[in-house]
Amino acid sequence: MKKHNVLIGITGGIAAYKIPNLCRLFIKNSYNVKIVMTENATNFVSTLTFEAIIRSKVYVNEFIEGSNESAIEHINLVDWADIIVIAPATANTIAKIAHGIGDNLLTSLMLVASNKTIFICPAMNTRMYLNPVTQQNIEILRKRSFFIIEPDEGELACGDVGPGRLKEVNDIFDLINKHVNALDNFKGIKFIITAGPTIEYIDPVRFISNRSSGKMGIALADYASLMGGEVLLIGHLLQSHGKLFNTIIIDKAIEMLELLKENVKKYDILIMAAAVADFKPKNVANEKIKKGEGLILELEENPDILKELSKLKNDRQVFVGFAAETSNSIENARKKLIEKNLDMIVLNNVLRQDIGFDSDYNEVTLIFKNNEILQIPKMKKSEIASIIVDKAIEIYKSKNV
Ligand code: PMT
Can you give the pTM of this predicted structure? Predict the structure, then answer.
């Protein structure tokens, strides 16, 4: 088996003290490790600590006196690396990378590393993390296909409580290791995923819709692409994600249907997480409706997208739907699974405030064609997404032996 080369970049945050354990995990699992630290990082943990763990030199300064290889050091390090992990990544380093500033070895090598698989693990004070400028910088990196391993929430070293704590190093390792191992499993598999609500116009400025935020569908697209799948995300999303996957923004259910009909045959796995509006105004006014005269809206049903697509489904494809219920009605979900010719349906309760619509969390029951049922307790949508996508891949593999 190929031994992967991982280059770990450590920046100056208190969470740097957790990185020796991350290095140990990589080494224990047969990765080759090299380390680059910023000057600031060495104030938190000494280079000696890391040198003892990885048994080789730790790189800090770009121009090392007496070394004739120093000037091209950053190029050599990048060429060597299969994967680059920056942990902890401070707001400062994230900003520099986002804006192309190379003022130390680590940020300079990031200027050369545009074709590499790069994981960024932000860790910082909550207010710094939530500061729009940091969020914008993170978004810039996402759009450039960096994998962002979001920080956990909790009490931080500074006493603040909120997001900003470095993700547990075991989880960081698992995600990266899973990515490396999944590449073969996911390679060549094409996902078409829907997310968010649809909006149905009443007049040019008003519409009816629902509370879906798109978070569930985006989490699915994130994970599928993180694992190496090819992803197209379709939905009425507030911003174009364009991270590691293509996104097409639509408004109406009918537009979603047309796009899916046009494309679904080219994809292996369809996941419909979108909250498609079941009804739309029968007539759409061309001009803004004037107030004062009252308004009675006549609605008509939108087509059932999944039902329409099931007519185009072939035996090799896997279709996954969601069931938004206001009770945990397994019977209703199962009915949808059969009617829409799905391989799996994800039942979630949309009455609860702590999960479902517009929450970062969900709690779901997976129901399969063979009547098997899997209850997934409340967890982050990103974690739920990984379980759903892994199951979809399992079904896909069983259909395509
Ligand atoms: O976006 P978030 O804020 O993260 O919230 C996530 C979510 C609650 C929206 C998501 O987890 C979810 O439940 N999505 C499905 C919502 C829904 O429309 O459920 P449904 O039970 O009404 O529909 C069943 C399935 O048929 C769904 O896969 C739906 O996409 C699909 N459908 C529905 C109506 C329609 N006209 N055509 C369809 O294809």
Answer: 0.81
